[in-house]
Model the fold of this input.
Amino acid sequence: MPAYVCHACVGDPVIKAEIEKSGRKQPCGICGRGNRKAILLEELATRVDAVYRRVVGVVPELPVVRDGHACLSRDGQCPSDIVAEMLECGDDLAIALVRMLHDRHGYAVARDGAFEFYDDSSYTYEVQIPLDPRFRETWSDFCESVKHRSRFFNPSAKSHLDTILGAALNGGWPGRREPVRMIGGPGDAEHRHVYRARLANGEASRRRIYSAPARELGPPPRSACSPGRMNAAGISVFYGAFDVDTCIAETRVPVGGAAVVGRFEIVRPLRVLDLRAFDEGAWGGSLFDPDFMRNYAYVKFLRGFHEEVRRPVLPNTETLEYLPTQAMAEYLAAIAEPPVDGIMYSSVQTEGVNVAIFPHACAVEPDEECVDEDRIHIGYDEDGEEEYVLVDPPREPAAAALPATDPWGLSEGSAVMEPMLRLNQVITKYVKAVRYEAEGGRVRIHRLDRDSAF
Done:
């Protein structure tokens, strides 16, 4: 059995760094090369054993059919395969380590009936990383707190959100892609434009929108803001999507109805939290990292957190169910350092992406001219499919354009704020059909006799 193992025979970054730091230059018993930092095989086996026994268990029995007969079976890995994956090493080293650990623990297995962790002839093992429930419990406690205990002056809410989002906002996210990103501006072709729709089933509704499209298609005035997923009543947020179809679907336009869609250019880059980063790919952390368990639990939680934020809320439950995400949005916009301008999340209606731009960053460049609705005439082409608008000339000199307004009133001494969005296209869409996806199964109702025990 080889006496020494060098750093080059191990791919795991934590173990490789430990060998390079504490090892001595010795011939490697695995690759045969000399003059490399190496440690005793016994030392590496002890290091592997401490982690392996904490995360490895037996695969549950599952029903399978063999030779036409149903039976229970376990389909897993052998210990040397798991060790090879843990260390990112070759089979020779993994097998040598498993043999050494099997011999080391053999007496306890034989004498005390201890669990056999290192039977390399058995393919019944798997990695079973225990989940740390602290993040899920923190989110649950936060939701309970803002819903049922203290809504407006809640000393624990900030602490909860610091725990949940602090690392992701400040470069501590252990996943593959940073969740905080810049979008928009002339250099971002993918996210340069965002779409926002208004329901407009009648010509009167469309004339009102055409009379001042930037004002009507932009975020609503504070006095008309109803509560939404990312805003409380009276707080204006720009809800949009990055494609027209998603925008229409999120507006819930009925079959036979119409919507007017505005395409807005993001004229200055926005700093947003992209929740989709929490879903992307597996996290490649080392099992030997002292922070592995916490980081693993954090990654797993935030993958579910995206689903929590985007999940549908049933009618008549919005007032209560939107409270946690409303509080989170206010935390991101007003408490986090540096502040976040918006949040991106996957649509539950389509495969598209939604964005909510917070009040301090959602001002729209004003209309060059606001037109009286009675000056607007709507016509159609010969096929009745394409709509065009005729505007009568003004009876009086046109009024000066209104300045962009600050939905939160944050500007010092004035309601004027620097516009971040510019309307550059108006589209009218008519909904001809809607596709639903449903899941579920048949319900069987069993009628019990009076004397039946259930």
